[in-house]
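hi support,

uploading two proteins for the ticket. first:
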Amino acid sequence: MIEIKTSKLSDGEFNRGVFATRNIAKGELIHEAPVIPYPNEEHEFIEKTLLADYAFEYGANHTALLLGYGMLFNHSYQPNAIYELNFDNHTVDFYAHTDINAGDEILINYNGEVDCDDPLWFNEKDTK
């Protein structure tokens, strides 16, 4: 259903993104990405590494690293996919927010809410 290809949207070193290999209907589960949670007080060690850019809040007391294709979804303020934290399964579940055509890049809003247009944390660093 999905594959990794070169993305025109990613400006990182790897320029990867997640793309649909077939049409995906609105509401359809796209991917269940496993997470590695760790207590917030351990994050100071992660902050000293490149992994800090890939860690996210995972409940009130934990931070987590996302595995699978999870960290390869690129950001858009007009996403075609959403994600939900699944604490029971220790996954982040990605769903189609709109119908997605085969070949389209699958995009999420990194802010968590589809319509949230707040500046992204990694862009805020550049303006300080």
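and the second one:
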Amino acid sequence: MKWQGRRQSGNLDDRRGMGGKGKLAAGGGIVVVIIVMALNFFGGDTGKQLAPIVEQLGGSQTQQTEQRELTTQEKEIGDFMATVLADTEDVWNQIFASNNLGNYKEPTMVLFTDAVSTGCGNATAASGPFYCPADQQVYMDLAFFDELKTRFGAKGGDFAMAYVTAHEIGHHIQTLLGTSQKVRQLQQRTGKAEANQLSVALELQADFYAGVWAHYNQKYLEEGDIDEALSAANAVGDDAIQKRMQGHVVPDSFTHGTSEQRKTWFMKGYKTGDIKQGDTFSEIVR
């Protein structure tokens, strides 16, 4: 991705280098559900195995007490993330204006190490990248992307990071448009299987929005970028994760969609660039 020398967002809150060992403890309803799912489908080793499927966590952590200087490489990655965030701002400001959706409220992205306090509760790096609707901020421990390559088999590369960022911004779009709130309300009135289907539809729509962002950002794409995004999407499909962790899949337990679904919806957004074509719910929820 062509990013050097371009505009960087002022909405990046870089908290990396602030040390401390985070300790996760169940503290809210969604946390309990996630931990139960982990015990049922992934065994007792929850940790970083949950990174691709957890997006909101509560709990407790020790306070961050140490601080260190970032390396040159870490600073460069921070500059890259600030550039990608700026790209999402430019694209979504344009889309909101052209579709009469009102003003786009730009979110903050928080980069952290080990543990972080959020409006959704405290979280550790085990949560992976996630979006918190309570404070409308995206949180990332960038060590996740090493895990994505080494444990989950993704190609890696800078556009894999851009795809994950755009996916989390997709959840911000859903919050602004009221989609997330409607889904949570429906989930409270349905059984577990249908609640999971709603979760899958929500996640696939975020992948679709990531594709829409890529569509409008094509002038900065390089050869191989879309393949990197698709490789990341493939790696974090529910079926791929379950096969890797337990040797078989349990479709009713899916919360993010299969690898094929995630790739398909990202590509639909990328090819069309039309947010009106992102109705994942009518196709997923039975």
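thanks. also noticed: The mean pLDDT is 83.
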